[in-house]
Amino acid sequence: MPEPVDSGLGSPAETEAGAGRGPGRVLVAIYGLFALAAGARAGVQLAVQYSEAPLAYVLSAVAALIYLLATIGLARGGRAGRRLATVACSIELAGVLAVGTLSLIDPAAFPDATVWSVYGKGYGFVPAVLPVLGLLWLRHEAMLAEEAEFTGESVQAEDGESN
Predict the structure, then answer these.
(1) How far apart (Å, rounded) are the C-alpha atoms in residues 143 and 139?
(2) Distance, CA of 47 to CA of 44 (rounded, Å)
(3) First to last CA, the chain
(4) Which of 75-79, 98-102, 136-140, 146-150 has the lowest mean pLDDT?
């Protein structure tokens, strides 16, 4: 049975297969970077240029919040963390598709780009790919947790949930 690994975030103990290693760690880092980048950009734009493109700047702030929630969920792990990250990644994917489509159909509604404009073109289309990768990783983690629970190898978390 893998040894629990404390993520240091006040979160439940994770097995070595959790988000603290490999692709999970990369996803946490990318989501954290996007939360910081989108949040800083939106903060400056809302404070200095709000009247120029209010919809675009508010959508960038919403994207930053969603990236932050996904980061927290992925880093926390466990059943509750996976649930939070799944909701955040799902909303992110819907947002990227909706804003990306609207920004192509009605460019006048977006006089300045958002993180999700044209499906994240300004960010190398990473915003369009990231939620799909996040959801795939979360599915993988849920399957591992279910398998561990089935075989009796689940790790009891600090908050009483099984990973």
Answers:
(1) 6
(2) 5
(3) 13
(4) 146-150
d(CA 141, CA 79): 10
H or E element that contains 127? helix 126-150
Q: Is 21 helix (H, G, I), strand (E, B) or coil?
A: coil
pLDDT tens per residue across span 16-63: 445 656 888 999 999 999 999 999 999 999 999 998 988 989 999 999
Nearest residue to 81 (alpha-carbon basis) of 154, 7, 23, 3: 7
Is 156 among the domain residues?
no
pTM above 0.70, yes or no: yes
Overall domain count for the chain: 1
- Tokens linked to 133: 């990768």
CA gap 46, 101 in Å, rounded: 23
Q: Is pLDDT above 70 for 12?
A: no
Kindly state the percentage of the chain with pLDDT values over 70. Answer: 80
In a domain, 11, yes or no: no
Tell me which residue range forms the domain holding 104.
Answer: 22-150
Could you list the beta-strand ranges (E) of the chain: none
* Nearest CA-CA partner of 55 in 134, 116, 141, 121: 116
Residue identified by tokens 């990973």 is 163
* Token representation of residue 149: 């629970």
